[in-house]
Amino acid sequence: MSNGARMRYLSAAAIAGASALVLTACGSGGDAAVGGGSDDGDVTLEFAQWWEPELPDGAFRELMDTFEDENPGITVELLSGPYASTKEQVLAGAAAGTMSDVVGLDGAWVSDFAKQGAIADLSALMADDGFDDGQLVSQVQVDGSTYMIPVVNFVYPMFTNDDLLAQAGVDAPPSTRTEFQDAAEGITALGDNTYGWVLPLSLEAPNGVQNDVMSWVWASGGSMLDDGQPALTGNPDVESGVQFVADLWDAGVVAPGSFTMKEQDKVEEFTNGRVGMMIDSLAHVTTIQEANPDLDFSISAIPAEDGYTGERGIPYASWGIGVAENSEHKAEAMKLVEFLMSEETNAKLSSIANAFPGNTESVPDFVEDNELFATAFEIYQDGYPANEFTGLPVAEELMRQLGEQLQKSLNGDQSVDDALAAAQEQWESEF
Questions:
Q1: How many Cβ atoms sit within 10 Å of the Cβ of residue 262?
Q2: What domains are there in the chain, each with its CATH number?
Q3: SUPFAM superfamilies annotated for this entry (predicted)?
Q4: Which of 282, 306, 255 is nearest to 157 (CA)?
Q5: DSSP, residue by residue, 242-268
Q6: How many CB atoms lie under 10 A from the CB of residue 156?
Q7: End-to-end CA distance of the chain
Q8: Residue 87 has what pLDDT?
Q9: Residue among 398, 112, 113 at smallest CA distance from 231
Q10: Labelling 255: which of 38, 65, 186, 287 has CA 20 to 30 A away?
């Protein structure tokens, strides 16, 4: 991604930089200052994250051993736990000032943590250490300062069932909105309870608003923010993107059950061959292939507005990293952050995680071995990571509010303009 695209994205999102879905594990309780030291000057860094359990056994510890070899006197103690069990812990740690020195972060928590003073200003730490942030794909900022760096990114491209496309007379994945609607209508016309697109809009798990609705705006270079504030109304990019979703709904090409459907439900619909197209995480490629080895599917960029020729935003979720404000060892903690963001280490981590790197120069191994991942990596390099909910206050609640208004619109109870106006009012009260 070019520096211009990166800076445009940061300014468009204002306080959002680079996907959602992941939460942090906080350090064990105790004194506000965490980490350990000894009389001989050695330092122990606590690193709380959910990453180690999701990687091959021993892989993450091996990276930490390399860091320790390169930084004598610094030891890394991994505090690892599954995603689902860390939510309450990290909230408690942020409130009590007992976070570990280094923490895995979800962008949805960054704004609240920064305002609480729970996480450190990484812009200042990078400047103190002379770290060149130009090598970073993206940064999550609040009030102009970086508080989270996305270490690896899990992108959300378009998945297409190539057999269904062929039956509908479509010889390639759609690249524009018009092509997408034509393909969706053609697939739906095949009958046998087959639909062109799948749209999860569950209010219980509202990330469909992020990944499946607002992604149409980002794919054409649009933004839902203006100077860091909500801009759902008076915004042609948002209005046209959401209206396009409504048009697909009115055309009858969306699989039934959207209002209660969650992400895992749409993956099942696609895997079972009941829908022709979906926007989904690259992390599900292996799951789909294992569940239905005979399914012939492709990955492509999310279609853009007709006539759009700029770089396309692609939704993503990240493993982000930050430093605790209460840490007594911020300089050493920053060394660990920089190690993980170095070209070689970041390439290794992205390879074992089947994710895309946070360093602009890193290339994961799997792009040479897997055609689908190679295609997705090209999409990633040609565009820019786009998830403006990252870094926003009460991000999940914002998704839920817009989702609720969108449901009313799709149900015929209000227009798209009225839905956006109602959501705009709700969002403004949260900022």
A1: 15
A2: 43-154+316-386 (3.40.190.10), 158-315+390-428 (3.40.190.10)
A3: Periplasmic binding protein-like II (SSF53850)
A4: 282
A5: HHHHHHHHHTT-BPS-GGG--HHHHHH
A6: 29
A7: 30
A8: 64
A9: 398
A10: 287
| CA dist 199 → 25, 63, 257, 375 (Å) | 31, 39, 9, 24
Angle, helices 122-129 vs 330-341, to 10°: value is 90
pLDDT of residue 390: 84
CA distance 365 to 363: 7
CA distance 389 to 316: 11
- What does the pLDDT read at residue 32? 40
Q: Which residue type occupies 11?
A: S
Report pLDDT for 381: 84
Read off φ and ψ for residue 12, nearest 5 degrees: -70, -40
Q: Tokens representing 242?
A: 């959401």
Q: How many residues does the chain have?
A: 431
Instruction: Return the bridge partners of 314, or none.
Output: 385
| Strand bridging mode 297-300 / 313-314 | unpaired
Please tell me the predicted confidence (pLDDT) of residue 88. 67
Name the one residue in this structure whose structure tokens are 């430093």.
Answer: 323
Query: Residue 429 and residue 344: Cα distance in Å, rounded?
Result: 44
Rounded Cα distance between 154 and 357, Å, is: 9
C-alpha–C-alpha distance, residues 141 and 15, integer Å: 5
**343 membership: H or E segment, kind and range:** helix 343-353
CB-based contact 336:65 (threshold 8 Å): no
Number of Cβ atoms within 10 Å of the Cβ of 214? 27
Pair of tokens at residue 78:
């991994």
For the record, the structure tokens of 153 come out as: 């990114």
- pTM (2 d.p.): 0.74
Distance CA 400, CA 406 (A): 10
**3-class DSSP assignment, residue 187:** helix
Q: Which amino acid is at 212?
A: D
What is the predicted pLDDT for the residue at 31? 40
Query: What amino acid is encoded at 379 in this protein?
Result: I
Residue listed under structure tokens 């993980």: 340
Low-confidence ranges of the chain (pLDDT < 50): 1-33, 38-39
Q: Which residues of 334-355 are buried (b: 16+ CB within 10 A; e: fewer)?
A: bbbbbbbbbeebbbbbbbbbbb
